[in-house]
Amino acid sequence: MSFAFSLTKTRPDTDLHMGALLRGALERHGVPVRVTKPWASLPHEYLVAQAQPDGPRVWIHCNDHDGRTHYDIPRTSLMAVAAVVTDEKSTRFVYDGFTAADAADAAAAAAWPAGQAKECARAVAAFLDLPEYPTPLCTWCDDYGLIEICDASTDAVISHRPCNNPPCVARGEERAAVAAQRHTDALVIGAEEFGPQVCTECRWGGYTPVPGLDIWVCTASGCGHTVDRSAFDLAEGERLDVHNGHLHLVRAWDGCPF
Hints:
Layout: E1 4-5, H1 18-28, E2 33-37, E3 46-49, E4 58-64, E5 69-70, E6 78-86, E7 91-96, H2 97-103, H3 106-110, H4 112-127, E8 146-150, E9 157-162, H5 166-179, E10 187-189, E11 192-196, E12 207-209, E13 215-218, E14 226-228, E15 239-243, E16 246-252
Antiparallel strand pairs: 1-2, 2-3, 3-4, 4-5, 4-6, 6-7, 8-9, 10-11, 11-16, 12-13, 13-14, 15-16
């Protein structure tokens, strides 16, 4: 079953929205995640976590106090984070932020966005049977990448700032370099949709052409998987094209014309 890829970028962390907070927490737990929609016609997007190509998908989203659903809402309007899975057993919560929200006291609610992101990431990593989160290496931020700023009189968390502890900064840059190898974003150019061709071996990198040969090689460091043109099953009206150094499957775009 395929899903519509997102064409929307996650807001930067400085905008204080939930997307960067959730993606950072999930990546620190080693959870592979992408932005997508279950149907192209839906206005809201989810984070989807999946450890294996044929494994269960965990759909992660946020709800605000006005009933809106999206993974990248403003942190100040967050009501709850939820992670849901549907498999051969049932549809159920992997992380139920609504129950946690009902039980929270005023002090806990002050740190709600960061706390829910952390707990959701832990729950999703455990559900996907990923290695246990190691002991934090940075005591300034517990490897979270953000340091809480508290109100001087109430101790309530009022904002966050990036952790500038050198080892933490270096690890963040390393994670960013690895994440940059991912090739999961679709894009629309004119009347055509460019769908990403993800490596069938590592499910992480994309394909880039080998100069002088009719084969493509994975862009992810340490993979090296190669394929030739016969590996791609093209339907009528589809073609292969290279955009920004990566191979895409191009087809007519059937989205909204305005």
